[in-house]
Design a protein that fits this description.
The structure holds two protein chains of two kinds. Chain A is an alpha/beta fold. Helix content of chain A is 45%, strand content 17%. Chain A has a five-stranded parallel beta sheet with strand order 2-1-3-4-5, with helices on both faces. By secondary structure, chain B is of the alpha/beta class. Chain B has two domains: 402 residues, Alpha-Beta Barrel (TIM Barrel), CATH 3.20.20.240; 53 residues, no CATH class. Chain B is globular. Classes of the chains: A alpha/beta, B alpha/beta. The interface between A and B is large, with 34 and 45 residues.
């Protein structure tokens, strides 16, 4: 609903412990007025989706630098579908080569932010996508 | 009034090879021996890593540096549920001694020096390395190389841990003690700043936290009854080389001066080799952009030059496709050639510390030293590095610095070519990036099944039980680990056994 804060879960799936980007994104989103939950490290896709559903988030952002992005994004999307939570936006970043982005989009990832992305682009993307959604529902 | 560049030559600089080693740890530096060209590599299967190592050695690399995949780094086998999607992706998958034997197939361990970048399960990988040597018939005293083995910077920055701080430090002390007695030519630890810097710290924080970690390791070894001049000569360090150019050179010089004083004055070491800060440098991965990757070669060259002017003893130059994937063979070759050009064409190695005496560089070096000492005092006042980590101090410093940096780039206070200036609107030329097949996990799992079926299960159980018992005493665990790996106990089995005694680490929230 318009006026309500956008709720975002920033998550670190898989074994990767590099959280510099995830923490920066979480903080930037918070500073822009969103409600942000940071999952902490080494979460399974199951834990992430459970948190997303429980916290009733509008979007889930995955940070993956280990090369396991195809597997992890697929699994998260699968689980969101199983939990009737397909309306949750899925985005992410980390070390994701250009080649893999089309495939990720195809399985339902809404947007990938590669290294050196501007946090304001992420904020704009979320605001545009989520407010747009809310407006459609009215 | 004292000018910021003012130095007393004998007291603050010394000749290269003279205390406090500001100008270099050897009198003739690169004229006597070039830095080791040690490119970090490893991916996929042991066979693929073996091939890449052979390729790099053929191309003129002078030392090996092995990268392991995340399951291995976390002490997990390739068939662990959490290994799904991760096997072989950011390094080689090592599930048992068998994999490491394949990595070194055709490479005799007394003919090359090898660095193994592994931390939480470092003692186990070291045990495997020794076992490979034993099987090759190489005398342990001939082994030269390094194992990273630095858990403090994991707690601070890279966050690949298994056990809580106390047992983690115990494993490190055991491995340092073992190396001191049995692997006298081997560097028992590579006390690292690279990861701290890449996580977003400033150059000063990188310097200060790394050396303070070093102080912590020395204190623990001394408490365990080791004699300082026995182990100190084989402690080594690992720094980043990032932007900016002169600050990095000053950082390297300050590191040597600081460590020399720490060892001689704080710890009373008497041997010269104990005073020397020997280090490897890795050019910054974070500074390399996904945008216009070809220009990353320029960045790496500048950073490599800073490391050489700073007197590094070993160097890795990062590849142009760093921000996209693991390096292709071509990208890896260009990175190596960068070092070779610096070494053989630039003339820079012909003089030790050529920037010594520059007002600017001496002033910066003094500043770095002063700043690092302030951090030492602050951390000492907290009770030490482990206490500081428990309070979240270095982690918060890094988080703040990384956020400040991001804001600076976004506000264009800091320019990054290709990102906020010099942006190319043309579609990027597609560059080939390396892809790791998901088939690898299947392959590794099959190999594990075969291994488990073929080994002496009773011997595995026995050695694991002996390890478990030893973990509850204060015996050095290295011999027990070597016994386990020789029976082909898997990395996961060994690490899980230790988990039963040591527990697992939970990061405090702050």
């Amino acid at each position: 609903m318009p006026g309500e804060k956008i709720r975002v879960l920033i998550a670190k799936p898989g074994l990767d412990g590099h959280d510099r980007g995830a923490k920066i994104v979480a903080r930037a989103l918070r500073d822009s007025g969103m409600e942000v939950i940071y999952s902490g490290l080494r979460q399974t896709p199951e834990q992430i989706v459970q948190a997303a559903v429980q916290e009733d988030v509008d979007a889930v952002g995955l940070s993956i630098l280990s090369g396991a992005h195809m597997t992890l994004f697929s699994r998260v999307l699968e689980l969101l579908k199983e939990n009737q939570a397909e309306d949750i936006l899925v985005f992410g970043g980390g070390i994701i080569p250009d080649d893999d982005i089309p495939a990720l989009k195809e399985i339902g990832v809404d947007r990938i932010f590669q290294p050196n992305s501007n946090t304001s682009d992420i904020i704009d993307f979320l605001k545009d996508s989520i407010v747009g959604q809310a407006t459609d529902e009215q | 009034m004292k000018h910021p560049s003012q130095v007393d030559y004998q007291r603050d600089l010394g000749d290269p090879g003279e205390f406090p080693y500001t100008r270099g740890i050897y009198p003739n530096m690169y004229q006597g021996r070039l830095w080791t060209m040690r490119q970090f590599s490893g991916y996929g299967s042991a066979e693929e890593t073996n091939r890449r190592c052979q390729f790099l050695l053929e191309q003129g690399q002078t030392g090996l540096s092995i990268a392991f995949d995340l399951p291995t780094l976390m002490g997990m086998d390739s068939d662990h549920p959490l290994s799904e999607g991760e096997v072989g992706k950011c390094g080689v998958a090592v599930d048992s001694l068998e994999d490491l034997e394949i990595v070194f197939e055709g490479i005799r361990l007394d003919q090359v020096t090898t660095s193994m970048t592994v931390n939480a399960p470092a003692a186990v990988l070291l045990a495997m390395y020794v076992a490979v040597a034993d099987k090759q018939g190489v005398d342990r005293s001939q082994l030269r190389g390094t194992v990273q083995n630095d858990i403090l910077k994991e707690f601070i920055a890279q966050k690949e841990w298994i056990y809580p701080p106390q047992p983690s430090m115990r494993l490190i002390v055991d491995s340092i003690d073992f190396c001191t007695r049995s692997l006298p030519a081997y560097n028992s630890i590579s006390i690292s700043g690279y990861h701290i810097r890449e996580a977003g710290s400033t150059a000063l924080q990188e310097l200060a936290f790394t050396l303070r970690d070093g102080i912590e390791y020395v204190e623990w070894c001394l408490r365990a009854g080791m004699a300082i001049d026995d182990f100190a000569p084989r402690l080594s360090f690992f720094f980043d080389s990032s932007n900016d150019f002169f600050e990095e050179i000053a950082k390297f010089r300050a590191a040597r001066r600081l460590w020399a004083h720490v060892m001689r004055d704080r710890f009373g070491a008497k041997k010269e080799q104990s005073w020397m800060c020997r280090f490897h440098t890795h050019t910054s991965g974070y500074s390399l952009t996904a945008q216009q990757p070809a220009i990353n070669v320029v960045r790496t060259t500048i950073q490599a030059l800073a490391a050489v002017l700073g007197g590094t003893n070993s160097l890795h130059t990062s590849s142009r496709d760093e921000a996209l994937a693991l390096p292709t063979e071509e990208a890896a070759r260009i990175a190596l050639r960068t070092q070779q050009i610096l070494a053989h064409e630039s003339g820079v190695p012909d003089t030790a510390d050529p920037l010594g005496g520059s007002y600017f560089v001496e002033a910066l070096t003094n500043q770095m030293e002063e700043g690092a000492r302030k951090y030492f005092d602050e951390i000492d006042a907290m009770g030490g590095m482990i206490e500081a980590i428990e309070k979240g101090f270095p982690q918060k410093e890094i988080q703040e610095a990384s956020y400040r940096y991001q804001k600076a780039v976004e506000s264009k206070e800091k320019i990054v070519i290709g990102v906020n200036e010099g942006v190319s609107d043309d579609a990027p030329l597609p560059i080939k990036t390396l892809h790791i097949s998901p088939e690898l996990r299947v392959h590794q799992v099959k190999r594990l099944q075969k291994l488990r079926a073929g080994r002496d299960r009773q011997a595995v159980d026995r050695t694991l039980a002996e390890l478990k018992e030893a973990a509850q005493s204060d015996q050095n665990l290295m011999p027990f680990l070597i016994d386990c790996v020789k029976e082909y106990a898997t990395l996961g089995e060994i690490c899980d056994t230790l988990k039963e005694i040591f527990g697992t680490y939970q990061e405090p929230s702050f």
